[in-house]
Specification:
The protein has 407 residues and is an alpha/beta fold. It contains 14 helices and 19 strands. Helix 5 runs parallel beside helix 6. It binds S-adenosyl-L-homocysteine (SAH), thymidine-5'-phosphate and zinc ion.
């Protein structure tokens, strides 16, 4: 039995994905022996609605100077963050972007802030993983390598003053000390400032059985209910939401200090939708568990049968998400020959836990396999558009979200 990280109610795991390594912990053979594993188990808090990991590895084990995830590797995401930044400037700052101050946490290689920098808006990125932060600095983006929390917020305010906007993407759900984060935002944000952040949405995970959103970094999967509850405890109000297609279904939350902005009808409507989806009911999560087990069984059977037929299967995209899939399903190098990935730092290494070789994209193109297992399914649109030649050569895609299928 554990305590909910948000409301302290007791929570118990409703399922476990078994021993799992660090999702972005791509490694070399000399590191196989000492590889770190933890039990990837999940629980749901009936009181505040927060879906969470039971245990999470220490933050330094996940975010450090050899972090393997560079945001800029996807062109689609680059475009997405350009639109996000423009939305903030156009719709929240209006024609008065000059003189504004924007803070982003988890700013990575500057994929979002580069747009503010270009527009001449004062900005600060907070990015503890030093190697990716260095890329941002190289682009002229002001970045400090620290973990954001309430103490750091006070230091920033003392030095730089309060912010007009606090932004975050795919990082709020990584941080277990959530109350300290919200307290920090409270200190940092001007009275009329806005908070805008987005993360994979619990509703999509349940609807699509996209269980691969569950891995070490994602200590939480948010819903409107859990976000309203957590921020409500610190005097914030959820004033709007903007559903996103990114990462297989995300939600952007817009919050403000209590009473400073009108609450959109969309918030009420989506809260009602969460009730309909059963996001507040334990039965929903038991059904989800059954769906995960079915997905695992079907994917394994498919790969084993392709192997028996002597077919070549290559993985596409060594995503952090795929670490949950490969370890939970038991996908080893005898079933998937290698994983093709465009990120230089991942190439020549091996996938966490299951040790499938990660190879450059050229190796995929050089000799197309018969099947490509689409680990980067969240980038499906971008990938399908550029892989027509694979299809023309008779190649087939294996997908597993929302269901195991050959396309
Ligand atoms: N925003 C980017 C990167 C997401 S990856 C995108 O959406 O593509 C998450 C990033 O958050 C990592 O680069 C990690 O180093 C950083 N991070 C983790 N904990 C953090 C914290 N407490 N404060 C600020 N950044 C953090
Ligand atoms: P993500 O799902 O966490 O964003 O990671 C995507 C991974 O997939 C990243 O390692 C880059 C890789 N990738 C490719 O190899 N080819 C592609 O076309 C795309 C879009 C991503
Ligand atoms: Zn709770």
């Amino acid at each position: 039995m554990k305590e909910c990280r948000i409301c302290s109610a007791p929570i118990r795991p409703f399922m476990s994905f078994g021993p799992t390594p660090i999702a972005n912990g791509f490694l070399t053979p000399d590191q196989f022996a000492g590889e770190y594993f933890f039990e990837l188990a999940v629980g749901f808090c009936e009181r505040c609605g927060m879906f969470q990991l039971i245990d999470q590895p220490d933050r330094e084990q996940m975010f450090h100077e050899h972090y393997h995830f560079f945001s800029g590797t996807s062109r689609f995401m680059t475009e997405h963050f350009r639109e996000f930044a423009e939305h903030v400037m156009d719709d929240f700052f209006g024609d008065r972007s000059a003189g504004r101050f924007v803070v982003e946490i988890g700013s990575n290689d500057g994929i979002m802030l580069q747009n503010f920098a270009k527009a001449g808006v004062r900005h600060l990125g907070i990015e503890p993983s030093k190697n990716v932060a260095e890329v941002a600095r190289g682009k002229g983006i002001n970045t400090i390598s620290e973990f954001f929390d309430a103490d750091l917020a006070r230091t920033i305010v003392a030095k730089e003053g309060q912010a007009d906007a606090f932004l975050a993407a795919n990082v709020m759900c990584h941080i277990p000390y959530f109350h300290s984060i919200i307290e920090g935002i409270k200190v940092l944000l001007k009275p009329d400032g806005i908070v805008a952040f987005e993360d994979p949405y619990l509703g999509d995970v349940i609807e699509k059985t996209s269980y691969d959103q569950i891995y070490d970094e994602h200590v939480f999967l948010f819903s409107l209910k859990s976000i309203s509850y957590a921020f409500g405890q610190h005097g914030f109000e959820l004033v709007d939401i903007e559903p996103q297609e990114t990462h297989g279904g995300s939600m952007r939350y817009i919050l403000a200090h209590q009473g400073r902005r009108p609450v959109s009808e969309r918030v009420k409507a989506q809260l009602a939708r969460e009730e309909e989806l059963g996001l507040n009911k334990p039965e929903t999560f038991l059904r989800f568990r059954d769906n995960c087990e079915k997905s695992r069984r079907e994917l394994k059977e498919l790969l084993v049968s392709l192997k028996e037929q002597g077919k070549r299967v290559v993985g596409y995209g060594a995503t952090s998400k795929s670490t949950t899939v490969t370890n939970y399903t038991g996908i080893t190098p005898d079933l998937v020959e290698f994983i093709s990935d465009t990120t230089p730092i991942k190439q020549g290494k091996f996938s966490p836990g299951t040790h499938i070789p990660v190879q450059p994209y050229d190796d995929f193109q050089k000799e197309y396999p018969e099947y490509a297992l689409l680990f980067a399914w969240n980038h499906s649109k971008e990938i399908m558009a550029k892989e027509q030649a694979f299809r023309d050569a008779g190649g087939k895609w294996i997908v597993y979200v929302p269901a195991v299928e050959v396309r």
